[in-house]
Amino acid sequence: MNGTVTAVSRGTGHGFSKPNRPSVRLLAGLGVEGDAHLGVTVQHRSRVAQDPMQPNLRQVHLIHAELHDELRLAGHPVAAGELGENITTRGLDLLGLPRGARLHLGEEAVVEVTGLRNPCLQIEAFQGGLLKQVVGRDEAGNVVRRAGIMGVVLAGGEVRPGDTVRVELPDGPPLPLERV
């Protein structure tokens, strides 16, 4: 199971979108160097307000470029980095990965998948109607989140557009992704 990195992004402030970069450096146990969400403990403002000592399970945000394609077709032009992701991929079913899957990005970096991104109201402020496109309900009434996945950096390294993403599945039965 392989895919490709199509874009990398980082933002120094706590804004919604992140500018694309030629490369980003992942730092083991911390996240994306120079990104506002870098840290061992949680950096998202709402989570810091609840408990600033929570472990940061949201060090890296990944979105599949296919979601951008779907959103454009639904009338929401969205480019890589605009939904706040650090790494945009193509060719991988990120939302179908189990918790604990390891993503080998480029030559050195490894990110372990921790769960689903829970989009906040900032996404609605970015583009009206967008929240309904990325959060919905299935036939049984369960919440379905489609705004990407979150992970922690196990091994650091440089990541660039064009790099291969190789998936390593965890041993044992697959654990479904939950909101983190």
Automatic annotation (TrEMBL):
Domain (MOSC): residue spans on this chain: 18-168
Cleavable signal peptide: none
Pfam families: MOSC
Domain of life the protein comes from: Bacteria
PROSITE patterns: MOSC
Stretches the record annotates as Disordered: 1-22
Protein name: MOSC domain-containing protein
Organism whose genome encodes this protein: Kitasatospora herbaricolor
